[in-house]
Amino acid sequence: MALRTVAQYRESLRDGRVVFYRGQRVPNVTGHPVIRVAIEHASIDYEMAERPETRPYLERYLGGARGVPAEHRLRLMNLIQDLTASDFGGYQAVLAIHAEGSIEAEKLATFRAYNPKPAVAYAKRLASIPEVQAWLAPASVRRPSSGPGR
User: Fold this and answer.
1) pLDDT in tens, 65-98
2) In this structure, are residues 32 and 21 in contact, taking their beta carbons and an 8 Å threshold?
3) What percent of the chain has pLDDT over 90?
4) Backbone phi, then psi, for 94, in 5-degree steps?
């Protein structure tokens, strides 16, 4: 699976982000004695994704319909979080709330006049999800027809 490894996850946290803990700036979140515990706990998910004995469960419960692999769904969920629950997403929410008209009226106008296919393709590209049609996906990418929980 091409999800991040534990080492890649931990390295991604050393990106110059500004973090404060109990009023004190934390220069290295991976070395902080308290924050490090949370990082080690989150690392378990990445480790489990690589284990052959837990991998079928990951695909079964996080994989999507029509053979969408768990990795692609997780990448898309992370992209959605980045766009909606980040500073950028918060800014966009403020703009949407304070723009002219109601949000529902804006949604209706958008859905009526907008072709979502280019945006879906762009989101897949941003999330590094290859353009694979579910019915053309190789068997290794499709959800297993039998396995844990089936």
Assistant:
1) 888 888 888 888 878 877 776 666 666 666 665 5
2) yes
3) 4
4) -60, -45
CA 97 to each of CA 90, 100, 140: distance values in angstroms, whole numbers, following the listed order? 11, 8, 44
- Cβ proximity of 9 and 51 under 8 Å: no
DSSP assignment of 52-71 equals TTTHHHHHHHH--GGG--HH
pTM to 2 decimal places: 0.47
pLDDT tens-digit map of 21-30 = 888 999 988 9
66 Cβ neighbours under 8 A, 6+ residues apart: 134, 135
> In the chain, where are the structural domains located?
1-50, 67-150
